[in-house]
Specification:
The structure is a homodimer. Chain A is α/β, with parallel strands linked by helices. Chain A contains 24 helices and 30 strands.
């Protein structure tokens, strides 16, 4: 895929310049210096020779075909440059030139125009407003970056061209190689999803590292990311997680920054490893590129100093991994090979004067122990330390079946050894914590790979009935679905809803209550009153006709007084539900990723403790249970403090039914069941109150 | 203070060796190479010359006096070496030799012996089992470190010698200077507290950075750290925060690792900045050493690339700081000086081709704006970027009244500029997040410096009555203080305790209830039953004599059945307290830092949500309020969800009364008031149940 872009045979540089420092010059120089094997065609209106290559004044002059055109002419000439590229058979163009969407409406219109031009000709475009593309395997540096990286397993997709330069400079500093680097710029045509797809199938790419400020199409991203993650790790740094960051991101590229919670849910679903910051993006990527995945989470720590060993042990335990001692027979055998004062516990302390051999013995022992899944090797530069020798000795005894990480601490004496480690494919980190964090990201990815198959259950439901209710509401032009209709819809999806009917007069209220049987609840029904209890619009536990009369009269009196303009449907008389734990389950629809389910314990747990979890619909039974388990208050559902356990299956079932409902009916924009009353194991949960909001209707 | 150690005139090296690589050789070489101005006296039994200096076969041969002796002889000769040093008038000794407490009991006994020898002669000892001491101001390198740092404002105190080497190597790599470096080793005499005291008074030291695995004496540390923090920042990395880490720490040095929560409380009290990991220790220390404290938390971000600006904005907001836009008139003036496409919002984007001048203008504008408290300057290495020039231009326009941080991102092209920044006293970080984290630690420290004066209120209480109760319990040899006596004690400290009395028979129970007035609670009273409700030993809301009789008989029947051997005092009949929000306030006594107060909302909030806060006693009114505010459930106390607000003053008051009680009576080892029922504003809180545990009595 995208052969013309990533493996072109002939590349035109439109806007090639003879002034060093100019973008059009640097691109040409980069193409030449990277040793590109195909034809390079500089295009410059003044013709002549640049960097030893004969220029065309116009691409038309070139008598061959080209595959790729890198365009670095001023804004107003870009369209012509694309047209001439199409004329020469280009399959792809890279538009380096800026001045498009990021500058405002006029630029956005220009961008739409050139994207349309490409699309109508079947040509793919990278950019505009980007740094370019690098493919080390093909010796292709079609960018104005100042550096060409060596070959390696990390491929980078970045929405910021400037960060590409920082990444390349970091890679140069640590001697880390890359497979591909793509600066996607304003992504008018090709975007993150396209490149994730391409890189998933690229044999040189071992890990895909993305820097993103926005995602162009959430649904496509979800599918592509999950498919890619099934074959190789995808690590994403998504910025704009704060309101200040979102503001900065939108002033920067005009990208629509979605809610951060939705991104989190999307990444969780699709197996994307989320990096917390710039350093952790490459800490993880380096680990994935250089080491095999761990089979489990049991870690051996090898160190020549106590302090850093303690740091590593702290970080390991805090991140949920296990500091696992060697098996006794292996520990004993190792002890015999180390000085008497060495410790073969975990951390394994080879002592301050340890040479390369002692480290090698310890690494061999940890590798031979099948109760150990990963090894972290720590070195501090002490008087007798042979850091480079140790790096080599460790590398030599690595068998490749479990990951090994290094943290050679310091900045001057250890630098050569640290670079040697990286060159020998052992990821090295400036502190033990960062090694542990990288390992943790590998464990998380491995756990995702081993997840249960995603089989979404379909419940038998009365879909036609929901269609009827929704068309009625649509006819009335009412986006707000009150309790009565919301319950009707939920009942059709086999939710347990208390028996209830609307009554429009005092006598009808009493008659309805008598029919349903006491005790009953009375709730005001009005499209204008969503928060019923705030208006005195809910009366519970009415147990005889007198109480129903009193409640009715009082309710009408108060509503009249407080909200005289409210349109009244009447009162909803409902059988009193049994008691149970109050749960909230709900859904909001993210503009990017679609329906996102929410779960939390009712009342303070959601409102004060913010103890809620989210998951993208459609959801499996397994995922629904994970949502419950991810809350702190989960212990309460299990029956902490002597209370009876509630029926977890009922909650998981409810989440799946909502998932099915909102997938079936995309016009449901929001949904809340609050409270959902869940009783002891074996009992049916009850929808005590519910509301929805429809899209596509003006409120 | 410690002049003989830090500013000696004559230094003996006992165990000076002629073999390079040996510790006794390296120490001598370090002393010489660092340019020490005083006399150096190598001592080696074979005499002769080492590194151009004439050796004494025995220190006795030296005909002058010495101030400091660095001892690197084998274990068994250390005592004699100390004795000969004392004989020559040494004020301090550094014992490099290992093989003491860290190796087991025998070593620990040896350590006690040499420490006693020093103490009895008024000589101070560093070590044993340490790397040594460095004082750059005095050109003193009395260590076997491989590097001598340049002069700088950071002083390091480290419990790990190996980490000292990593720190020195890091400092060498980044060109960071140090004032003093002390490897405290096993700290048989001089410990972290001594050096914090000394460094607090050292004019070369701008910030004290400590790596600690344990604290020798919590009470002394608290005082010294707070005194030091009043004059300069103290940043501490305390490891052993996990059970694996504690285990590693104790196998490593045999130090008693205290509970991590207590360390957190101690650091908070004494103004110590806690570093989360090794990198943040030096990230913070560098900031403190190089930049003035911020006056507030409003941050301006200057960048030549959108992405890193967003990262910085995210990190700023997430850490609770404010991304503050420039004032309009300053922004406009800046806009006139930058290219049209530049953004003068916040982040201020000077654009990818920005030269040093554009950066300088932006930094000047941010400095001139008095609504900005701190400036973060970000650079990515783009085609036109002059990183070194920018570093210099930024440094030149710094006025020094507000802190400026840099994050020049990359690893190769920017390295020279990054080192230049550090040389120019602008702390530079590999990513914007780390700059923000360092700034945050400065803001926290500044907030602590501006704290209200710590005035602990003393309440008028009946101390004698508590003394009487406690002596009675001591006479009985009972460490567990049940509800009845605990309430008696709390009543003496003016807690509001419901009226209640012990009854030892059915008739007495009924009579007591009639006297107190219904409704009453009945609770079993037995030193053998602490968790009364587990045994059916609590009955609430008894409202007439019949109910009292039923409850009494049932209780006796059940106790007989379940715990026939329990010693029974009778039943405690108590007036039913009014309802209120259930609070838990309590105290545990940390072996290091003494009484630690605890606060949390009752029930699930403590048990399930772990929403609790701790603070060291004695506590001020202000600190008690901070404890409440630090919980997530605080909003509930304020009256979230339409409930009435509770009387916060009553809780704060209760915490202060407990603080006074446990300070007055150190034999109270544990105390729990659970629940403490707190009602609406203006009402008195009630002790519904309480228990204590006394120390010094066998259970």
């Amino acid at each position: 895929m995208l052969e013309s872009l990533l493996k072109p045979k002939a590349v035109a540089v439109i806007g090639a310049s003879r002034s060093p420092g100019k973008v059009g010059h640097e691109i040409l120089a980069n193409l030449i210096n990277a040793g590109f094997k195909g034809d390079i065609v500089p295009v410059n209106p003044s013709g002549g020779e640049i960097l030893g290559l004969e220029c065309c004044a116009d691409l038309k002059e070139y008598d061959g075909a080209i595959d790729l055109s890198v365009i670095a002419v001023p804004n107003k000439f870009v369209k012509a440059a694309i047209e001439s590229s199409i004329g020469k058979g280009a399959g792809s163009v890279i538009v380096i030139t800026a001045g498009y969407k990021e500058t405002g409406e006029e630029g956005a219109a220009l961008e739409v125009e050139i994207a349309g031009l490409c699309r109508s000709s079947g040509v793919r475009m990278v950019g505009p407003n980007c740094l370019g593309v690098i493919n080390t395997e093909h010796d292709l540096n079609a960018s104005f970056a100042t550096q060409m990286p060596g070959k390696g397993g990390i491929s980078v997709v970045s929405q910021s061209g400037a960060l590409c330069t920082a990444i390349l400079d970091w890679a140069a500093g640590r001697g880390v190689g890359l497979a591909k680097l793509v600066s996607i710029g304003n992504k008018a045509d090709l975007n993150e999803t396209d490149f994730i797809q391409v890189l998933a199938g690229d044999s040189q790419t071992k890990v895909i590292a993305c820097y993103l400020e926005s995602i162009t199409a959430g649904d496509e991203f979800l599918i592509a990311a999950e498919e890619a993650a099934n074959t190789k790790p995808v690590v994403v740094l998504k910025v704009g997680t704060s309101s200040a960051g979102v503001k900065a991101a939108s002033s920067h590229t005009g990208s629509l920054a979605g809610a951060d919670i939705a991104y989190g849910a999307a990444f969780k679903r699709s197996g994307v490893i989320r990096a917390e910051n710039f350093e952790s993006l490459f800490d993880s990527a380096t680990a994935f590129a250089m080491q095999p995945l761990p089979k489990g989470n049991r870690v051996a720590i090898i160190t020549n100093a106590g302090g850093p060993g303690i740091m590593a042990a702290d970080a390991t335990e805090h991140s949920g991994l296990i500091v696992q001692p060697l098996q006794p027979h292996i520990a004993e055998a190792l002890k015999a090979k180390l000085p008497a004062a060495a410790s073969v516990g975990n951390p394994i302390d080879v002592l301050g004067d340890a040479g390369p051999e002692a480290y090698a013995e310890a690494v061999k022992a940890a590798q031979a122990d099948d109760t150990i899944d990963a090894v972290i090797v720590i070195l501090t530069p002490q008087a007798m330390t042979d850091a480079v020798g140790t790096a080599r000795a460790v590398a030599e005894c690595i068998k490749g079946d479990k990951p090994v990480f290094a943290s050679f601490m310091g900045g001057h004496d250890v630098m050569e050894a640290r670079n040697e480690l990286m060159a020998l494919n052992i990821p090295d980190y400036p502190s033990p914590d960062r090694a542990v964090a990288a390992l943790k990201s590998m464990c998380d990815y491995e756990a995702w790979r081993n997840r249960a198959p995603r089989i979404v259950k379909r419940f038998p439901v009365n879909r036609r009935r929901v269609e009827r209710v929704l068309s009625r509401l649509a006819r009335d032009g009412r986006p707000e679905v009150g309790e009565v209709e919301a319950k009707e819809i939920l009942r059709a999806y086999d939710f347990n809803v208390p028996e209830g009917r609307l009554a429009t007069s005092l006598d009808e209220a009493v008659a309805t209550a008598e029919q349903i049987g006491y005790s009953v609840a009375m709730k005001i029904s009005s499209p204008d009153i969503l928060h019923k209890s705030d208006f005195g619009g809910v009366k519970l536990d009415l147990s005889n006709a007198d109480q129903v009369r009193d409640a009715y009269d009082l309710m009408m009196l108060r509503i009249q007084r407080i909200a005289p303009e409210a349109q009244l449907n009447g009162v909803y008389i409902e059988q009193m539900g049994k008691r149970g734990r109050e749960i909230i389950i709900g859904m909001t629809r993210d503009p990017q990723f679609g329906p996102m389910l929410m779960f939390g314990l009712g009342g303070i747990f959601v409102e004060v403790m913010k103890d809620v979890t989210f998951y993208l619909a459609p959801i499996t039974a397994d995922e629904a249970m994970q949502m419950l388990k991810a809350t702190k208050s989960y212990a309460l559902l299990l029956g902490a403090r002597g209370e009876a356990a509630v029926d977890l299956g009922e909650i998981a079932d409810g989440l799946q039914r909502i998932s099915q409902l909102v997938t079936d009916f995309p016009q449901i924009a929001e949904l809340d069941i609050n409270p959902f009353l869940v009783g002891p194991v074996g009992s049916k949960a009850v929808v005590a109150d519910a509301r929805m909001m429809l899209s596509g209707l003006d409120p």
